[in-house]
Specification:
Length: 277
């Protein structure tokens, strides 16, 4: 399934997330499996220390470069205008590509994120990226960027799953034509196993994980589930032959419980979360 972004670029609605895939062999195997079963988007970041493996797996697969959508992100310690441009060069080199599909500010580092985004705009103008974007930006950060940016972010990647549904923020983004990617779409292991979801899944001859992922698609968000297991990588992409009925959507809606797993970038001092990273 393809999502048409506000700048007319097509982005696959389901991609593979590769956070915590630090073992080289494991990462290459997972990415290769994903490409084999039909994934065409990979979500990495400088922080994940596996851009090199992402680049190698893609290169070895021999798909045309334009068939693959690569997202990477500028890490907090690399932010600011000049540093971001330098970090981008390093990412290009590690990924062994001459452009990156989507480049995101990983977190809105106070006093730096508007300058970081200014560098991302420049990369877009220079056609070194196809989709300028941000991650973990809340309403206040997006409003701040509206004051300073010439090109609005096309994507905002935020934590989103049944325990933290982010309906307000998603509405805010969609009203501005900013597409939303949900990170941690399976709740990073905090939702499953779940008997009620197993029961719903049976109805569709699917798994509980597929029900959660389909719920995201019904809400119009892009998702990047992570798995290192071939059977799950396959399962997480097998989402396009069913849809959830209203009652099941409402059941999952009732799970919303402020179940944030990552930092809350609206809280003063949220940067403490990243000490030592
Ligand atoms: P996910 O919600 O994708 O959950 C991943 C966990 O679920 C892993 O433990 C995985 O285990 C397990 N899992 C995967 N598929 C299944 C399945 N079908 N059934 C049961 N369990 C399953 O969490 P992530 O934190 O990895 O988020 C996804 C991606 O989002 C990241 O990889 C990264 O690319 C991005 N991200 C972005 C952030 C940001 O700040 N922008 C922050 C965090 C993540 P196993 O691997 O053993 O299968």
């Amino acid at each position: 399934m393809i999502k048409k972004l506000s700048n007319n670029v097509d982005m696959p609605q389901v991609g593979l997330g590769v956070y915590k895939m630090t073992d080289e062999t494991e990462a290459i195997k997972a990415i290769t499996t994903a490409l084999d079963v039909g994934y065409r988007a990979i979500d990495t970041a400088t922080l994940y220390q596996n851009e090199k493996e992402v680049g190698e797996a893609i290169k070895a697969h021999k798909l045309p470069r334009e068939d693959i959508f690569i997202t990477t992100k500028v890490w907090n310690t690399d932010q600011g205008y000049d540093n971001t441009l330098r970090a981008f060069e390093k990412s290009l080199e590690l990924l062994q590509v001459d452009y990156i599909d989507s480049y995101l500010t990983h977190w809105p580092v106070p006093e730096k994120y508007t300058e970081t985004y200014r560098a991302i705009e420049r990369l877009y103008e220079e056609k070194l990226i196809r989709v300028p974007g941000v991650s973990n930006h809340h309403q206040e950060h997006l409003l701040e960027l509206e004051k300073t940016a010439n090109i609005k972010p096309v994507i905002n990647q935020i934590e989103c799953h049944p325990l933290l549904q982010q309906s307000e923020l998603i509405k805010f983004c969609h009203e501005r034509d900013i597409a939303v990617t949900g990170w941690g779409p399976l709740g990073r292991g905090r939702i499953l196993p779940n008997e009620e979801l197993d029961h719903i899944a049976k109805k569709y001859n699917k798994t509980a994980a597929q029900v959660i992922l389909r719920w995201h698609l019904e809400r119009g968000t892009i998702i990047i589930p992570k798995s290192i297991k071939p059977s799950r990588i396959k399962e997480n992409f097998d989402l396009f032959d069913f849809s959830l009925d209203q009652e099941d959507m409402e059941t999952i809606a009732s799970y919303d419980s402020n179940g944030r797993t990552g930092a809350n970038s609206s809280e003063p001092g949220f940067m403490r979360h990243f000490e030592g990273m």
